[in-house]
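Changelog entry

Holo records now carry the ligand SMILES as an explicit input line rather than a separate metadata file. Below, a converted record for pyridoxal-5'-phosphate, shown in the new format.
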Amino acid sequence: MFENKTEGQAREAILAFVEEYYEKFHRDKQNWQEGQRISYASRVYGQEELRNLVDSSLEFWLTSGRYTEQFEREFAAYIGTPYCSLVNSGSSANLLAFMALTSPLLGERQIRRGDEVITVAAGFPTTVAPCIQYGAVPVFVDMAIPQYNLDVGQLEQALSEKTKAVMVAHTLGNPFDLKAVREFCSRHGLWLVEDNCDALGSEYFIDGAWKKTGSIGDIGTSSFYPPHHMTMGEGGAVYTSSPLLHKIIRSLRDWGRDCMCPSGTDNLCGHRFDRQYGELPAGYDHKYVYSHFGYNLKATDMQAAVGCAQLGRLPEFTKRRRENFARLKEKLAGMESCFILPEPCPDSNPSWFGFLITCRDGVDKNKLVGYLEGHGIQTRMLFSGNLVKQPCFDGMRSKQEGYRVAGSLKVTDLIMEKSFWVGLYPGMKPEMIDYMAEKLCGYQEMG
Ligand SMILES: Cc1ncc(COP(=O)(O)O)c(C=O)c1O
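Structure line, unchanged by the conversion:
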């Protein structure tokens, strides 16, 4: 087959087959047929993703390489920050974002063990886990419905002389009140980490312009796990506008090393053998100088290759998510006496991850969720509900140590007991939305 072909020609021939393969065996898999289950999320992909994946595998570079470099550059431009680091998951992105703030390079503002970080309990556990794993103290504030984000009115009472940061997610794509939170952080000299894992593409009006969520605080994080706004299987990103934070993030991501040369490159700075670090001998190879106790959280170039293709689809994905939200909200308008429906945060334009519904008194959430699932509509909870009530908190809860609750978590508990969500992913067709609305409106028939 490859006789008389150059490597480039052979590769093109294989990639042409891959495109054909996509058309024959993948395209229709994404087409929902009446009677099929409606998932809360699903990957949407085309020929380009498969093509890039195979292209990268034929190169056999495997670790981060040219696709990673392209992805980091294009993703940073999309988000609106100068720096982006690709990692292997959203949880790793959160770990890096948090651990970056513990770097001694930050002087007085370094988060030390015992320092406090304000966050919420109704969210995904790995927004909070790095703080606990390090030995810092999460301080939980309550949520507000119908935005399902942190109640900014609780921030002042959560503050103590140990507070160093606010680290919180934009719930299911709905931005939290970034103006109030950022203002609170700058007034008290706190870091702001936006867990943007469920909000890629959401926008917020601040400083006279629309900006992407994740670009407004000090550090933003993304997840590219399949249900998210775009996917590369496993994957995540950490982004910032601060050159210092970027340097720390890269160091921690790449084994803790001081040198910033990408994989396979040496001596970009021209000073590989002529500097003095720590108590090492003068001129010790900079490639093996460690300024942090780091990890290796890099993704492979095959993941990045898929990401490059997905990134091109993001504007369309975002548009579809917004349309799906608007359609479902409109269809449920008459149900306000039974359900609390979600509202966007003022000054925001969310790229909705899901549609959160809170059952009013008299509507049994468990029964309703069972009814929907029984009719082929997949449902999800707001992740951990109240994280403090999860088994992972058993030891800390019984001793009342290692965390703090500012005020009460009454609304958090209400969300845990009465809220659930259904999907809005870009592959959802209008008839799927209409079916979900029909079942939600007709829930009384469940008896
Ligand atoms: C808000 C939030 N943060 C972090 C994560 C973790 O992302 P990953 O699954 O890529 O580790 C998730 C996962 O869904 C999430 O919803």
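Spot-checked after migration. DSSP finds 13 helices and 16 strands in the chain. The radius of gyration is 23 Å.
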